C-alpha cells in the first residue's frame, strides 16, 4: 500500500516527539501532557492505522536555573525556551529529512517555534494551519503576560523587535502562509498585528457562520490554493470547547465541538499534504481525573484523525 501522504515515502513512519516542557507559561503540569498521551496507548493506536511508529522515550531537555534566566523585557524563561525550542527544531527537522512524519506532543505552545522551524528547514514552502483559541502572535512589544507560549508566531514571522536570545529562529514563515481556525481570545495588540499584516483568521464567528467544512476549505484556499504545499498542523487543544477538552491551562468557552476539531484533522489528512503535526497544551494536572482522561483521549483521537482514521 502506498502512503496517502505526498511528501512521505514508504513505509509510512510517524516519529513521536514527546516534549515534556512547560517553560513557555506559568502553570505546572503541562509538561506531563506527552507522558499521558503515550500512556493512553497512542503508539498502538497509530500502529493500528498502519503506521510504523518511532518512539524512543520523551525528549530530554536541558534545565536552566531560574536565577540564570532572568526575564528579557517581561519575557519569562527566555533562555530556557530558546534552547529547548532550538533543540526541538533540530529533532523535528531531522525526522522530516529521514522521511518521517514528526508528531510533537506538548508541552506548551512555545514549542511550535521549534517544530515549525524544523518543518521550514526541510520544506521552505510549508504553510501553517494553526488551530487555537488564541493567536499566539504577541511580540515583545505587545505581550502583556510575558509568557512565550503566547508569542511563537511573532518570532517565526519576524514581527516586532528581535530578541537576540532568539536569533537562531529564522523568520522564514510568510504572513500569507499562516491561517488560523478557532480564535476567540485575541489580545488587543494581537488584533492590531493580524490587521496590520493581513493575516487570515477564521474565528469561532466564522465557524458559526459558514460551518467547519466551508471554513477548512476557505482556510486551505488561502494558504494552499493549488493544494501542493506541505502543511504543518499546529493544534492547541484549547481550540476545543472546555466541555470537550477541560484539562488545559488557558481554557476559553465557546470553542470547537468534538466533531469540528476532528473534522479539521480529517480534512487536512485528506489533502495528502501533511508534513508535521503538533498537539499542544494538554495539562493533566488541571481538573479532575475524569476530565483529564477525557482530554487525553480526545488528544489521541485528534492525532488518529490527522493520521488517517476515518469514520467508515
Ligand atoms: N498557547 C496558549 N495557550 N496561549 C495563550 C496565550 C494567552 C495570551 N494571549 C498571552 O499572550 O499570554
Ligand atoms: Mn491556546
Ligand atoms: Mn496556543
UniProtKB/TrEMBL annotation:
Mn(2+) binds at residues 109, 132, 134, 136, 236, 238. It comes from the Eukaryota. It catalyses: L-arginine + H2O = urea + L-ornithine. Signal peptide: none annotated. Its cofactor is Mn(2+). One of its GO terms (cellular component) is nucleus. It holds the Pfam family Arginase. This is Arginase. It comes from Coprinopsis marcescibilis (Agaric fungus).
Amino acid at each position: 500500500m502506498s502512503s496517502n501522504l505526498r511528501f512521505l515515502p514508504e513505509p509510512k513512519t510517524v516519529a513521536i516527539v514527546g516534549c515534556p516542557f512547560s517553560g513557555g507559561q506559568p502553570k505546572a503540569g503541562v509538561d506531563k501532557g506527552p507522558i499521558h498521551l503515550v500512556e493512553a496507548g497512542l503508539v498502538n493506536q497509530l500502529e493500528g492505522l498502519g503506521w510504523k511508529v518511532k518512539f524512543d522515550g520523551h525528549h530530554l531537555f536541558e534545565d536552566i536555573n531560574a536565577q540564570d534566566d532572568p526575564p528579557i523585557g517581561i519575557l519569562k524563561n527566555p533562555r530556557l525556551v530558546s534552547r529547548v525550542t532550538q533543540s526541538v527544531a533540530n529533532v523535528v527537522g531531522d525526522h522530516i529529512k529521514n522521511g518521517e512524519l514528526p508528531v510533537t506532543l506538548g508541552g506548551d505552545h512555545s514549542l511550535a517555534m521549534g517544530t515549525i522551524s524544523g518543518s521550514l528547514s526541510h520544506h521552505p514552502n510549508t504553510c501553517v494551519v494553526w488551530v487555537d483559541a488564541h493567536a499566539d502572535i504577541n511580540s515583545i512589544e505587545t505581550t502583556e503576560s510575558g509568557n512565550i507560549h503566547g508569542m511563537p508566531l511573532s518570532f517565526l514571522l519576524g514581527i516586532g523587535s528581535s530578541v537576540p536570545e532568539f536569533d537562531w529562529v529564522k523568520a522564514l514563515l510568510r504572513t500569507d502562509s499562516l491561517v488560523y481556525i478557532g480564535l476567540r481570545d485575541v489580545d488587543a495588540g494581537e488584533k492590531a498585528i493580524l490587521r496590520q499584516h493581513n493575516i487570515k483568521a477564521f474565528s469561532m464567528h466564522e465557524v458559526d457562520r459558514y460551518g467547519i467544512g466551508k471554513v477548512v476549505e476557505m482556510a486551505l484556499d488561502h494558504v494552499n490554493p493549488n493544494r501542493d504545499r506541505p502543511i504543518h498542523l499546529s493544534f492547541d487543544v484549547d481550540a476545543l470547547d472546555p466541555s470537550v477538552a477541560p484539562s488545559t491551562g488557558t481554557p476559553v468557552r465557546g470553542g470547537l465541538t468534538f466533531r469540528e476539531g476532528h473534522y479539521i484533522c480529517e480534512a487536512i489528512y485528506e489533502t495528502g499534504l501533511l508534513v508535521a503535526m503538533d498537539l499542544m497544551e494538554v495539562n493533566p494536572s488541571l481538573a479532575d481525573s475524569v476530565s483529564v482522561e477525557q482530554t487525553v483521549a480526545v488528544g489521541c483521537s485528534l492525532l488518529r484523525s490527522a493520521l488517517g482514521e476515518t469514520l467508515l
